[in-house]
Amino acid sequence: MRILVVDDERSLREGLTDLLRGNGYDVHAVDDGLDAARIATAEAFDLVILDLALPRLDGIDVCRRIRVARPSVPILMLTARGSESEKVTGFDAGADDYLAKPFGARELLARVGALLRRASVAPADAESLELDGCRLDLGHCIAQRDGEKQTLTPREAGILRWLHRHRARTVTRAELLERVWGAQGDLDTRTVDMTIANLRQKIERDPSSPKIITTVKGVGYTWGEP
Questions:
Q1: In Å, what is the CA distance from 47 to each residue of 43, 58, 133, 222?
Q2: Best CA proximity match to 108, nearest among 40, 9, 17
Q3: Domains, in order of start, for the chain
Q4: Which of left, alpha, beta for 9 (phi over 0: left; psi -120 to 50: alpha)?
Q5: pLDDT tens digits, residue range 27-65?
Q6: Reported pTM
Q7: CA dist., res. 94 & res. 73, Å (int)
Q8: How far apart, in whole angstroms, are the C-alpha atoms of residue 30 and residue 121?
Q9: Contact 96, 122 (CB under 8 A)
């Protein structure tokens, strides 16, 4: 089992790494939010242990980005405060469990084991999809049509994953900004339109008449044809 540990406190990060490795886990550790978001969205982990207070990008935003790119990976969030409002914010961002500092080694290992067991029996989002002759490997960020491969960005893969997960309804631009970009009102919704226009060039047979991502005028986007 591969675990990503994210904490800027060196002694705790190293202590967690030693504890988990001593119990048979493969551990990768980083000390800031931007590195955590980049690594966790690009590589596959079985569990992420994520501190809330991080430099460059806080744990809530990191959690949101991981949840979009890797919907099924369990996230255990660490906090020095552990207030109810803080926990609710973390759960809303996609955390699976919370552990307040200081905590004991036995409790941490028990929570890690429980999350990993739960994940092993939970249905995962589809990572390989095919529509209108285009094969999408979202796990590896690759689209293939007529023998030609296109590399997708993690954000483009996140858009496709979110639209497919919610294919029974229309997804708004604001929702995509929040769930894929991790933004809350600080980006223009035209950012979504420009990203999807570029994405269509990669995956659609005819971007002017798309069959994978459909625009719903005045609302947002939906998966497939209406």
A1: 12, 18, 34, 30
A2: 17
A3: 2-121 (3.40.50.2300), 128-223 (1.10.10.10)
A4: beta
A5: 999 999 999 999 998 888 999 999 998 999 999 999 988
A6: 0.60
A7: 10
A8: 28
A9: no
